[in-house]
Amino acid sequence: MNIGEALRSFGGLQVKMESAQNRLAVLRIDGHSDDGYVTITMNGRHETLKVAIASELLIGGDATQVERSVGQALERAGKSAREAQSSELSNLFGGLPIPGFKLPF
Questions:
Q1: How far is CA 101 from CA 60, 69, 90, in A?
Q2: Closest-CA residue to 86 (of 71, 100, 67)
Q3: Using CA atoms, how far apart are residues 58 and 22, in angstroms rounded to an integer?
Q4: Which tens digits make up the pLDDT trace of 40-54?
Q5: Residue 13 has what pLDDT?
Q6: Are strands 48-53 and 38-42 parallel, antiparallel or unpaired?
């Protein structure tokens, strides 16, 4: 492969990378607490877009339960976002695992 072919190949990869980033930016992922009182919505870039807490949870005044529920929902949304990123990377590289490589965000 000569330098021109390498640059064209890199340019194609760069376009695919930008496309993957855009898909992840508009992806909406919900994480829910076990009790169903908290829902956290993230995008595929791990940006928190919304936190919804049911009024029933707040009325009780139990800070420990609120903390636990928020933590559960946040963890689940983050896990789903990581899985979405992993899937995008796998698609980007034709299913080949690239250890330690992450999308740049």
A1: 44, 32, 11
A2: 100
A3: 36
A4: 999 999 999 999 999
A5: 76
A6: antiparallel
Query: pLDDT of 1-36, one tens digit each?
Result: 667 666 666 677 778 888 888 999 999 999 999 999
Describe the crossing of helices 63-92 and 3-26 by its angle, rounded to 10 degrees.
150
Backbone angles phi, psi at 70, to 5 degrees: -65, -45
**Cα–Cα distance, 78 to 41 (Å, whole number):** 9
CA diameter of the chain: 68
pTM assigned to the model: 0.71
Domain boundaries, the chain: 31-85
